[in-house]
Amino acid sequence: MELQSIYQKTIKFAAKKHADQNQVIPGTNLPYVVHLSNVTMEIIFASQETKEFNTAFAIQVALLHDIFEDTETIFKELAEEFDTEIAEAVLALTKNAKIPKEERMMDSLTRIKKLSKEVWAVKLADRITNLQIPPQHWDSEKIKEYYKQALQILDSLEGGNEYLEKRLSERIQDYSKYCTSKA
C-alpha cells in the first residue's frame, strides 16, 4: 500500500476515534487530529533525513499514538484494524495510569526503548509538537515539570533519531523561557 493510502486510512480512523470523544488540543478549539497530523509531519521530515527508516510504520504509529490514552479504543481493535506491531508500539507510547504519576514517563520510555527506532522517533516528535506556548491554566510547576520531562525524553532516547533529537533540543531551549516567565 502506498504511503498516501496508509496515511489516509490511519488518519480517518484516528480522527473519528478522537472526535467521538469531542477531543480538542488543550487550550485551543482545534480538533485533536491537528496534533496527530503535526506529529506525523515531524515523522515525515525525519524519514527524509534518516537511513533505514520504516516510514509507513512510523506514520501509522504517529497518527495513533494517543488512541489508547484518549479514546475507548482497545488493543485488540487496533491490532485487528492495523496489526499487532502497531498496537504494541502505541501501547508503549501510552502512559500506564495504574502506576504512580511520577513513574509513568520513565515506565513508558523503558517500554519504548525495547521497540524499533521508529517508535522512539514518534515519542521525540510528539514532544517536539507539544513544546508550544503552555496552556493558560498551567501553573509554573506544571510548566517546569513538562520541561524536565522533555529533557528526560531527550536523554533517554539519545541515539534514536539524530534529526529529531536536534529538533527537540532546539524546542527545549525555546521552551525554557516559559519556566521563568510565569509566576
Q: Topology, please?
A:
Blueprint: H1 3-20, H2 33-48, H3 55-64, H4 67-70, H5 75-81, H6 84-93, H7 101-112, H8 117-130, H9 140-156, H10 162-175, H11 177-181
Helix pairs in contact: 1-3, 2-3, 2-8, 3-6, 3-8, 5-6, 7-9, 8-10, 9-10
What's the N-to-C terminus distance? 51 Å
Q: Tell me what portion of residues adopts beta-strand conformation.
A: under 5%
The count of β-strands is 0
Provide the CATH top-level class.
Answer: Mainly Alpha
Radius of gyration: 16 Å
Mean pLDDT: 95
CATH homologous superfamily assignment:
Hypothetical protein af1432
CATH fold type: Hypothetical protein af1432
Tally of separate domains: 1
Structural class: mainly alpha
Shape label: globular
**Topology as a string of helices (H) and strands (E):** HHHHHHHHHHH
Helical segment count: 11
Report on the biggest sheet: none
- Per CATH, the architecture is Orthogonal Bundle
Low-confidence runs: none
Q: Helix coverage percent of residues?
A: 55-70%
Please tell me about this protein's structure.
The N and C termini lie far apart (51 Å). The protein is 69% helix and 0% strand. Helix 2 (33-48) runs antiparallel to helix 3 (55-64), helix 3 packs across helix 6 (84-93) and helix 7 (101-112) packs parallel to helix 9 (140-156). It is built from 11 helices and no strands. It has a single domain (3-181), classed as Hypothetical protein af1432, CATH 1.10.3210.10. It has 183 residues and is an all-alpha fold. The protein has helices at residues 3-20, 33-48, 55-64, 67-70, 75-81, 84-93, 101-112, 117-130, 140-156, 162-175, 177-181.
